[in-house]
Amino acid sequence: MIDTKELLAKYEPGKNVQTITAEPQVRLARYSPCGKTLVAGGYTGQVRRWNVGGDSAEMPALTGHHAWIDGIAFCGDGELLFTADSWGQLCCWRGYAAEQPEVAWKNETAHDGWIRELAVSPSGQIVASCGSDGCVRLWNVADGSSVGLLKNGRDVLRLAWLPDGTLVSGDDRGIAKHWKADGTVLRQFDASSLYTLSRLQDCGGVHALAVDREGKSLAAAGLIPKNGGTLTGPPTIIMFDIATGEEKQRWKLGADNDAFVGDVHFHDEGFLSAVCYGTPGAGKLVYVAPGVEAPFFEKKLSNAHSLSWHPDGKRVAVVTTGPGSNGNGRPLDKEGNYKGNKSPIQVFTVPG
Amino acid sequence: MLRMVLRCCALLAPVIIFGLAGLAAADDAAPLHAQIDKLIEAKAGGAVAGPATDGEFLRRVYLDLAGRAPSVEETRAFLADPAADKCEKLIDKLLAGGDHVRRMTQVFHVMLMERLGDHAEWQKFLTASFEANKPWDQMVREILSPDGENETTRGSALWYTKRLEHYGENPVDIPGMVRDVGRHFLGIDVQCAQCHDHLFVDDYKQEFYHGMLAFVGNTTIRTDLSFPAVGLKPLDKKIEYMSVFLQKPEAVGPKLPGGQEVEIPTFAKGEEFQQPPDKKTKNPGVPKFNTLKLLGEQLPRAENQLFTKNIANRLWWLMQGRGLVHPLDLTHKANPASHAELLDLLASELAAHQFDMRWLIREIALSQTYQRSGVLAEEALPQSYRAALEKPLSSEQMLASIQQALGDGKPLAIDLSAKSWTDWQTRFDKALANPAREPEVGHNPTVKAALFLMHDTTFLGWLKPTGENLTTRLIKETDAAKVADELYVSVLSRPPSVDETTAVAEYLTPRADHREQAVCNLVWSLIASNEFCTNH
Amino acid sequence: MNYSHLCTPHEHALSRRQILGAAAGAAGALGLGSLLRPAIAEELKKKHKQVLFIWIDGGMSQLESWDPKPNTTFGGPFRAIQTSVTGVHVSELLPRSAKIMDKLAIIRSVHTKDNSHSAGVARIQRGDPKNRGVTYPFFGSAVAKLLGPGDSGLPPYVWIKPGSGGFIHGDAGFIGPKYGAVAFGDGKPPENLVAPPEVPPHDADERAALQAAANARYAKGRGKEMGEANSYVYEVARTLMRRQDLFDSTKFDPKDVERYGTHEFGRHMLQARKMLEAGVTFVKVNSYGWDTHGDNFNGHLSLMPKFDQAFASIVSDLDDRGMLENVLVIAMSEFGRTPRINGHIGRDHWPEAWSVAMAGCGLARGAVVGETNEQGTYVKTDEYDIGALFHTWFSCLGIDTKKVNYDNGGQPLPLAHEDMHVVKELLA
Q1: H-run or E-run covering B516
Q2: Residue A181 reports pLDDT greater than 80
């Protein structure tokens, strides 16, 4: 039985917060496995990087991508960084901590359109990508050659590897699937309450996905959509038993006028950490434990989109959005230029 | 065959002779209805229609005063009555009856609430007011300054509470409420006064709106009571606004158009309430400076010309089909009254009679202008009143008249508390009434209403023969002439012409083998005719 | 201070008679009343012009549709694609419309004043004219009055919308409630359209004849106006009854249904085509739910293709049937969406720089008017408010807004904002 008091003692974020402000906005940030670099992708085709520790200076951004970067993954051996964008390009960089990493290989048409996530297999040999073309594609880490194709049919929003080399995916209709690398579907998980058709609009889907260390539990998260347009609903995590496909538990993390769970992570000690965002300014960092009904930790943050635990287990970085990010008006900066938004990345330290 | 009997009020004719100026000196002693006719005829500008036929008058006065068409019994009795003063007697009889209370309640409900909503307490307030023939100024006082302690009148607060509700995403429409105070009780549309910058020269009128806003802008809905009620937040400073023309800031406290500005007293903090609010019970308290009470005292007064003219105009519209100022809430320089002297007269006389609405309605009903026929050989402008104007039937009048026409011929006993009646009324309102906030003042035929009369199964069900209803009686009657007579008297409150009788016989005779359906068709065609659906 | 919010739909009915013209209710040939000079009236009578007005309620993002700025700070995730007009690109979310760009006219330099829905929708549809103390009619009501119902016998202003139907008086503003919209909720026929079993067709005919005879007798010696208005609504009711095929989706060609899309917007657009084919003067189709303050990009990813297939299908179909010459097609919202991406991955309201798509009657083909800057934040070229578009549309329909006015009881009122003018580059 999980002892949430003990977990809190170890993992409750302390008062010490370091803020790295990313301007323009970023959505996704990930620590490298070595822990030296924080890599983030946003809306402008640039892969942003910061040194971890010391002054957390920003390193030169990696260019060559277009539009939105929603795929960031690492392969520890060879210091490889994989990035993917919303135009379908997949890129492998060697030496991600160097000033100017080299492009090991790239594929401009890895997918037709939006690549939603990247994940490297436990063996370190395959990098998987998924996207709006309804497929999960598997690529050889060394040279980018295609080694597999999993046809989902619907827009695949998220994916994750299990320790045994199988994969799970989550799509825009709230259906998660357990696959073998050869394309066989082993099982489906019904998280369709994370989806609704409102008038014309398909709303929701699996916006965050995580698998526990042993490959026994799957967390699919998003929101329970109320209606389309300005999409709102209670952010929700649904946990499944992978072997049976059954829903084991679900957590409702907010109110009707909140929005998505942006990211979810299974900690090695068995609890889940997640971040949520919502209508102007709402959002939080939250911990839930299987078997425990209510979250055992919550911290309000402004529109948090992703979280990443440092490999040393003592830090967690949360990408938030600066205040006043909404508005119908025409906010201008001091020089009279139209302003975009910023993403303060909050780095919390925990006792560990 | 009934003869057309000339309308009895021809007796009054000697009093008003076209253009006889010599009687001017006697005007002050002449009854109001006589003065009305004199002023109308002075501006007629052409030949006027003769008096309405018995049938015309009968149906018109029933619809106007009783809110329904007359029954077969009532029609036949009136048409056969030889008495010279039968019109006046009928008017008095109707004014004294329960139907009249219902009629006035319905008219004022639609006029004041404009289909925004309803409540049993509001109905109680209206019904009690009209049962007692409560003077209009007192009614307005009770509406503008509702008394939550008075169980009979407290429902008057619905006028405010419905206007203080949220509609969808929109904020509470305080400007709309301020505007309605002006429209309903003063006959002016203060909001639009601000936009008429090409019609109004001076800034003065912008003050109207803000002055009235100061009276009612702090009203809130009370959530602590089970009946409609309002609370009031204290007003501690003038309303500020920017002058459209002079581009300079202005401020005004509570002030009625043409009235004196009320000075806003200052209180020490915590001293503003005569009865302090209670956060626990959610009672908003009562401020010492009670602007609603002041409004109730200042607005409905005989000295307030806008107030008196407004009600006089509305009662004129109710009976005649058109306001002397038309539309009814649009008094301004570019929309003067068609008969300014007459409007002044009606207003001052009503005020002199303590705002007794029943009295004024009676006087209008007794006038030749009211009792004129609607048929005139040449076209005349409506505002000349050379012929009686056609008035559309309200949803309430339609239900009552259809039920009356298709029933057993006896006068309807309408029970407004009966669920069947309210269900029918809701059904009729859905098809025939205007959407909320669209005043039901003029003629507005819709495809929806037409399809309703053509196909609504509840209504069509009433055409089928049951008991002693009209269809049953018509099917049973073998004499063709008697069929036509019963049909026309029941539905149109008049005997049929020779041609009409022939037409009925010609229609029914070849359809003897499906007589029921043929009779239904005939009855339907008269109900759906313009003659039935219009108050003429 | 702007007072226009204070003038609510209860308009000044001072001279509705004058505005309605001689025959208030007549479904007559012209239905133009006292508005136009005889010469113009005759010209218009020759070819009955029609309008298809597609209202995308909530604010379609111009950056995810007609004016993409791919790979820029605010450009969003999507790519831009080529169209059938060289040098013109649209968002990848509009593949079918891209193929028929040569039939379309797009304006990218729209800058309007209101960034709210509640006021903005009405202001846009009323053309946001100068405040003259009256409530201007919605474009549909104006066209219903100016062009009349034509020969169809159907109501001149029809609105196909999700949700409930009914008769929407308020659209008509000061020109009189008769010119309101007849709305068909979810494209369904109005309540009571279908005759119940107790009124078989033979009896319906007899009832109509008996009613007409009664009305003729009653009319003697009375003013025509009220009687004619009453009769008119029965005529429209009976015409609608005869045209129930317009509401019967089982009668739609399954191939059409697939092309337009089986979703509600596709169904409604297909029904709109049938209404236009039946001769209805002004057909408005609404789509709701476009106000993507949150999750704008997944939202448009789902919404745009549905708009695209129906829009491209109807424009192509109208063209194939030779109707595009006489039908003015407009697709628009009440504003665009902010370039700035907010904290819940959405875009907010942006009237400062947005686009309107059009096709058909009187318009240039394959035209793109106006440009926004590189980031899509502001208009670079001449800006146009909605008033200018109204001038342009009236011109397309053969009405010269410099010469024709409304007559509000002797007070002439311009059809569109008097300080604005047609957008010449949009005209054929």
Answers
A1: helix B515-527
A2: yes
| C288/A199 CB distance under 8 A | yes
CA distance C70 to C83: 15
Residue B524's φ and ψ, nearest 5 degrees, are: -55, -45
Decide if C214 and B191 are in contact by the 8 Å CB cutoff: no
Q: Cα separation of B460 and B448, whole Å?
A: 16
Q: What is the pLDDT of residue B247?
A: 62
CB distance A200–C287 less than 8 Å? yes
Going from N- to C-terminal start, the domains of chain C cover: 31-188+247-426
Spatial separation of the C-alpha atoms in residues A312 and B353, rounded to whole Å: 94
**Tell me: the pLDDT tens digits for A259-272?**
999 999 999 999 99
Give B-chain residues touching C193 at CB under 8 angstroms.
451, 455
Average pLDDT taken over every residue of chain B: 88
B4: left (phi over 0), alpha (psi -120 to 50) or beta: beta
**Nearest CA of chain C to the CA of A77: how many Å?**
31
Q: Which residues pair with B300 in a beta bridge?
A: none
Residues from chain C that touch A321, judged by Cβ atoms under 8 A, are: 342-343
- Angle formed at CA C217 by CA C212 and CA C223, multiple of 5 degrees: 100
pLDDT confidence of residue A1? 67
Residue-by-residue DSSP string for B128-147: HHHHTT--HHHHHHHHHS--
DSSP A126-167: EEEEEETTSEEEEEETTT--EEEEEE-SSPEEEEEE-TTS-E
Neighbours of chain C (3+ CB pairs under 8 A): A, B
Domain C31-188+247-426 class? alpha beta
Interface list for C 203-262 with A (CB within 8 A): none
Q: Above pLDDT 70, what percent of chain A? A: 99
Contact C8 B533 (CB under 8 A): no
Alpha helices in B115-221 (DSSP H): 120-131, 136-144, 158-163, 174-186, 190-195, 204-216
Q: What is the pLDDT of residues A214-257, one digit of tens each?
A: 999 999 999 999 888 888 899 999 999 999 999 999 999 998 88
| Predicted TM-score (pTM) above 0.90 | no
Binary contact (B196, C133; C-beta < 8 A): yes
Q: Kindly report the nearest CA distance between residue C194 and chain B, in angstroms.
A: 7
Which helix (H) or strand (E) segment holds residue B352: the answer is helix B340-352
Looking at residue B62, the DSSP 8-state letter turns out to be I
C194 against C11, higher pLDDT: C194
Q: Which residue has the tokens 């526990």?
A: A212
**pLDDT score for A168:** 98
| Whether the Cβ atoms of residue B233 and residue B221 lie closer than 8 Å to each other | no
pLDDT tens digits for range A34-80: 999 999 998 989 999 999 877 778 999 999 999 999 999 999 766 89
Chain A environment of C291 (Cβ under 8 Å): 229-230
| Pick among C298, C352, C354 to test the A interface (most A CBs inside 10 A) | C298
Please give the Cα distance from B416 to A91 (Å, whole number): 78
Do residues C56 and C311 lie in contact, with contact meaning Cβ atoms separated by under 8 Å?
A: no
Which residue of B197, B447, B530 is in closest CB contact with C236?
Answer: B447
Separation of alpha carbons B496 and C284, rounded Å: 47
User: Is the separation of the CB atoms in C126 and C137 below 8 Å?
Assistant: yes
Interchain proximity C169–B454, CB inside 8 Å: no
Q: Which residues of B touch C3 (CB under 8 A)?
A: 191, 194-195, 244
The full DSSP string for A81-136 is EEEEETTS-EEEEE-TTSSS-EEEEEETTSSSS-EEEEEE-TTSSEEEEEETTSEE
Which residues from chain A sit within 8 angstroms of residue C288, using beta carbons?
199, 229
Chain A neighbours (≥3 Cβ pairs under 8 A) are C
Interface membership of C6 toward B (CB under 8 Å): yes
